[in-house]
Amino acid sequence: MEIKLDHIGRRFNKEWIFRNVDYRFVSGQKYAVLGPNGSGKSTLLSILLGNLTPSEGELKYSDPDTPVEQVYQHLSFAGPYLDLVEEFTLTETINFHFQFKNYAQGLDAKALIGILGLEKAKDKALKHFSSGMKQRTKLALACCADTPILILDEPTSNLDEQGVAWYHELMSRFAGNRITVIGSNQAHEYDFCDHRLSITDYK
Ligand SMILES: Nc1ncnc2c1ncn2[C@@H]1O[C@H](COP(=O)(O)OP(=O)(O)OP(=O)(O)O)[C@@H](O)[C@H]1O
């Protein structure tokens, strides 16, 4: 899969958040989208996700050619503004998610719960999960789906030191053969990325 941004810009009302983003994302590579708070990282990720249209420029998904309305089938996402259904147990959450996506090779619900290290909480409702447990769940759901595009915004928010180490293991196992894009302003979240795109270069 390839994502091509051709002179993309986005504004809200009269304020341009970024302009002239000319960039290619290709399979097998990991990209960090960087910038201070409020610079436009999440806005750019929302455009990549097909959730927000650019105000100018063109966005193309190719190899295979995919219209933006269908790209959701090919991508996985985790971010602070993605909500889980609090009434569901962990097992129900996983089963629900994987009605829409396939598991990455060799995985099933049991294996995913093992990756999370949450065997004891598998029948617990998410409303009783800690913020770190919820964040791990979001990351594991995204990473363990068989999608060619993986987009993570602020992936270690709410994770402690052990959680950050777990995130690094997850990335080394599941970020390999796809386009991985990390929106971040913390080095430990993106230090393994091959490329860095700084939003401040496009103001
Ligand atoms: N729907 C919207 N309407 C108006 N302005 C918006 C909207 N969404 C975002 N913005 C503005 O766009 C700018 C970029 O916001 P964005 O959330 O993309 O930044 P960010 O780099 O992800 O920030 P953070 O690191 O704090 O998460 C901000 O000034 C924000 O107020």
Automatic annotation (TrEMBL):
It comes from the Bacteria. Keywords: ATP-binding, Nucleotide-binding, Transport. Coiled coil: none annotated. PROSITE patterns: ABC_TRANSPORTER_2 (PS50893). The keyword Nucleotide-binding applies. Gene3D superfamilies: P-loop containing nucleotide triphosphate hydrolases. Residues 3-203 form the ABC transporter domain. InterPro entries: AAA+_ATPase, ABC_transporter-like_ATP-bd, ABC_Transporter_VariousFunc, P-loop_NTPase. GO terms for molecular function: ATP binding. PANTHER family: ABC TRANSPORTER ATP-BINDING PROTEIN ALBC-RELATED (PTHR42939). This is ABC transporter ATP-binding protein. It comes from Pedobacter albus.
